[in-house]
Amino acid sequence: MKYRRLGDSDLQVSEISLGSWLTFGVGVEADKARACLDRALDIGINFIDTANIYGRGAAESFLGGALAGRPRDSYVLATKLFFPMTESDRGLSRTQILKQVDASLARLKTDYIDLYQCHRYDDETPIEETMEALSEVVRAGKARHIGFSEWTPQNIRDALAVPGTVKFVSSQPQYSLLWRAPEAEVIPLSAANGISQIVWSPLAQGVLTGKYRPGAAPPPDSRATSDQMGGFIDRFMNDAVLGAVDQLRPLAAEAGCTLAQFALAWVLREPNVASAIIGASRPEQVDDNAAASGLSIDPALFEKAEAIAASIVRA
Questions:
Q1: What residues are labeled active site?
Q2: Considering 55, 79, 137, 302, which has the largest number of Cβ atoms within 10 A of its Cβ?
Q3: Phi/psi at 288 (5° precision)
Q4: Multiple choice CATH, 3-206+272-295, 3.40.50.720, 1.10.10.10, 3.20.20.370, 3.20.20.100
């Protein structure tokens, strides 16, 4: 496993990280989730990403139990806040930040969070209030660093302009061969300001593993057939996208890796990406994805892959 520095922080994070969205505490049985977590840590994945909203605390509670007994400095723990935990508990106000960080710490059974992230931007709270509260959390030792997820370039600029506050070190956007929106502004702006990308859905909800074929029913044990985990995959589940993914197979074969490894290595070709977050329901998936770290692939193959992805005609 290779490691990269997370923005201007002192954190060294594994190029492949383990996420818990839709899986831990929700879509995957506890024993299987623990097996995935144990395998990830055993093979050098040190970066674990979660959020308070995942299972309304269930994912954090699972991790709190599963990580108990491991040296705290042996892993980097990231969580998030913003989405409603109750009818009245949501957003990025000072009250919510101070309340939710304590709740997350309790569920995670830890004294500090390595990376505390704003899950989305809060239009109803002044950015000054949010940044000052996040800084208060860092200065109190409850979080080491802060980040954000899916903020616009203007959101980022507004936050950076607040004087006397702790600066962000990470951005968590959706990014893959099939979703390249961050390249236009978010990545260049982040790179210029000491902010790294932590990429979610680098395999496009599993579509870039090649498990789904055009004109064929999804495998019965796949995310696309799961009520708990399949809600965000629809945008990729059409024959135009799946047909293009089929055309990527020979490129991965020429590179000497699986299609999933090829897609993850493509994401990691971007220097501003510190880590690609994977989700897993079996340890074998963790092994396959982790092997993408450090792969050396001919850039010409990536260029061919980009051309194939760009040719998709979406309805």
A1: 54
A2: 79
A3: -65, -45
A4: 3.20.20.100
